[in-house]
Amino acid sequence: MEIILKEDIIGLGFKNDIVNVKSGYGRNYLIPQGKGVIASPSAKKILAENLKQQAHKLAALKAAAEEKAAQLAGVSLEIAAKVSATGQLYGSVGAAQVADELAKLGKDVDRKIITMKDAKKIGDYVALVHFHKEVTVEVPVKVVAENAEELKAAAEADAAIKAAAEARAAKAAEATEEEVDADVEEAIDETAEVEAPAEA
């Protein structure tokens, strides 16, 4: 069914957009919540008239969005998170953490207009900030280990334990080889002793 949106819904559309949605979603969520109305021919006419009258207002909104977007130009974030020894995050980093980090930089951005695939591992990601339907800013996000020193120490400890275990295993194998050699020599001596009287 066609719906005219009454407000921005990230992932679906922006205010005054006409979108196609499943009828259940439209009837049970968008319309009762006041987020949209059925796009009937009369509603479309009213929308077109309103958009004509609001053209200058919409241009001002777009200009304001572009101004906000310009403030984020060149901004990149580094977010520290607790990480397990395998590189997996405890939890994840998403739009809320991006909004918090932007706030620390003095950039007040509503987390509802930020979209980002949840980061579950350390690495580089991109957060999209949707200021306007025609104005979107990409913010590079680097997720790093908060407990890097602990992880490094744990990795070094694991490596030391592994090296010690390998050394013990090598020593044990060497000792076993010596025992086998000694047993073989003993067996040869015994055989020689048994054979010697027969030759005499």
From TrEMBL:
One biological process term in Gene Ontology: translation
Annotated signal sequence range: none
InterPro entries: Ribosomal_bL9, Ribosomal_bL9/RNase_H1_N, Ribosomal_bL9_bac/chp, Ribosomal_bL9_C, Ribosomal_bL9_C_sf, Ribosomal_bL9_N, Ribosomal_bL9_N_sf
Key words, A-Z: Coiled coil, Ribonucleoprotein, Ribosomal protein, RNA-binding, rRNA-binding
Keyword RNA-binding among UniProt keywords: yes
Coiled coil regions, renumbered to chain: 44-71
Extent of Acidic residues compositional bias: 175-200
Domain Ribosomal protein L9: 13-40
Single GO term (MF): structural constituent of ribosome
SUPFAM superfamilies (UniProt xref): L9 N-domain-like (SSF55658), Ribosomal protein L9 C-domain (SSF55653)
GO cellular component: ribonucleoprotein complex; ribosome
Functional summary from the UniProt entry: Binds to the 23S rRNA.
UniProt family annotation: Belongs to the bacterial ribosomal protein bL9 family.
Protein name: Large ribosomal subunit protein bL9
Taxonomic source organism: Prevotella aff. ruminicola Tc2-24
